[in-house]
Specification:
By secondary structure, the chain is an all-alpha fold. It is built from 19 helices and no strands.
């Protein structure tokens, strides 16, 4: 019986278009044309549409990467093109997270239950802050701060509920460092680091101080220092290529920090450098190397721009008016120590306190510019009373303690990498809280991300310990 030859496989004809491929090509071309037209007509709307097209599939299929993208965009939240984008993306992440919880509610409940303490402190603080509007003289002035505070709280909860694995923690930290470095590079590209002092109106203030995408030099400095701390924790990687990239990012961020000419930022950097050497005994060589790199980049910038160093070293004793502002704030605290005057009400009530006995040099800052307290903790005491201040301090203590507890538990598990990341998380939060002695940054999204990071690591350490326990018993 003659054998029948098997048919040869057909070679695909790549040059032949199908109706489906033609439809997809036409749709892609139409979307591209629409996007180009919107960008030409209105840049802000075009950028928003472009981000939406990139972000929607990312949030649906790679939720944690979407969260990291949001963290990176936080560093550009005060730019004209991206000002409203981070909050909108955060809401979309929330919607995607809730949709993806279907069928996996037990895992989500477990993650949030482990972080019950920090959630309770945060909710209690935000609820009390909103309640202070009941006795605020001008409640309408608090509309934007309350919205920003609610967005910040939402960011904290999402970080607690989404970041569940060790690689997720790495991604989050890398996104924070990347956002800080890109903010500096973006500002430099727009002339913000110009040594002539002209700078761009969006990336440098009238004094020529660099502000990147944060809208204020001091606010930028407050988030650059934590980024350096997180880069130090990530440098535990043995990969020489990754360490080189982190070293480059550290140098870029350090130059940006120097260019802000922020005394508060530099003080925070020094404080965290000392604390890092105290709590990171096994890695002092690496820490000293990163400190030296950051210091070298800073010195090079100041050597090339002596006027910037002169502003820092020859600053007046009043702290550019802060002493007068704090004096008035203490007068308000004396009259309203327990419940405060209401959130965002210091600029409204402070002009009534400048006529009390005592010499004030910068009265115009209070009466004409209605400036904020420029000290987060004093601001909370003024506006939310001792109740609000203690609730926020409780939140801080809970977060820092969780990060340090995580570091110890990872050490007991011989997990050197995660122990380093936990210490870096504690240092990053301490850095931002130190800088907050010189500015009012309660609504900063980066602050609330850092507040969530310690509890996330503590929960991860607990789950990792439970996962290893049966293996050890079996051995």
């Amino acid at each position: 019986m003659a054998s029948r030859a098997l048919p040869l496989p057909r070679t695909p004809r790549f040059g032949r278009a199908t109706p489906t491929s033609l439809g997809l090509s036409a749709a892609a071309f139409g979307v591209a044309a629409l996007l180009a037209g919107v960008l030409v007509y209105d840049t802000k709307v075009g950028v928003a549409l472009l981000l939406a097209l990139c972000f929607v599939p990312l949030a649906l299929f790679r939720l944690r990467i979407a969260l990291c993208a949001w963290i990176t965009l936080l560093f550009f939240s005060r730019t004209s093109a991206l000002e409203a984008i981070p909050n909108k993306l955060l809401l979309f992440i929330l919607a995607s997270w809730l949709a993806l919880l279907v069928g996996r509610r037990a895992k989500a409940r477990e993650a949030l239950a482990q972080n019950r303490a920090v959630i309770v402190w945060a909710l209690a603080f935000v609820v009390w802050t909103i309640l202070t509007l009941a006795w605020a003289p001008v409640p309408g002035a608090a509309e934007r701060p309350i919205k920003e505070l609610l967005y910040a709280l939402l960011g904290l909860v999402l970080v607690l509920g989404i970041v569940l694995e060790r690689e997720h923690v790495r991604w989050l930290m890398m996104a924070f460092v990347l956002g800080a470095a890109l903010s500096v590079l973006w500002g430099a590209a727009k002339g913000g680091l110009s040594l002539s002092g002209g700078g761009g109106g969006e990336v440098a203030n009238l004094e020529g101080r660099f502000q990147g995408g944060s809208g204020d030099p001091n606010y930028l400095a407050a988030v650059l220092v934590p980024a350096i701390m997180l880069a130090g924790g990530l440098a535990i990687w043995r990969s020489s290529g990754r360490r080189a990239m982190l070293a480059l990012a550290t140098a870029i961020i350090a130059v940006g920090l120097a260019a802000t000419q922020s005394r508060g930022g530099l003080i925070a950097a020094v404080v965290c450098g000392v604390v890092a050497l105290a709590i990171w005994r096994g890695r002092r060589g690496l820490i000293l190397g990163l400190i030296g790199l950051a210091a070298l980049a800073t010195v090079v910038f100041f050597a090339a721009n002596p006027a910037a160093w002169h502003r820092i070293s020859a600053g007046n004793s009043s702290g550019s008016g802060r002493v007068d502002i704090w004096t008035v704030a203490w007068r308000v605290v004396h009259d309203h120590p327990f419940a405060g005057v209401g959130i965002a009400q210091f600029p409204q009530v402070s002009p009534h306190y400048v006529l009390q006995p005592g010499v004030l040099e910068y009265v115009s800052l209070i009466v004409e510019k209605h400036i904020v307290v420029h000290n987060l903790y004093l601001q909370l005491w003024v506006e939310t009373g001792i109740v609000g201040l203690l609730l926020f301090v409780g939140l801080i203590v809970t977060s820092v303690a969780a990060a340090l507890r995580a570091a110890r538990r990872f050490e007991l598990q011989d997990d050197e990498e995660m122990s380093a990341l936990a210490r870096a998380a504690a240092l990053a939060l301490i850095a931002m809280l130190t800088a907050s002695f010189f500015l009012s940054n309660l609504e900063a999204g980066q602050l609330w991300v850092l507040l969530a990071l310690g509890p996330v690591l503590a929960g991860l350490a607990d789950r990792q310990a439970r996962a290893r326990r049966p293996v050890e018993v079996g051995v």
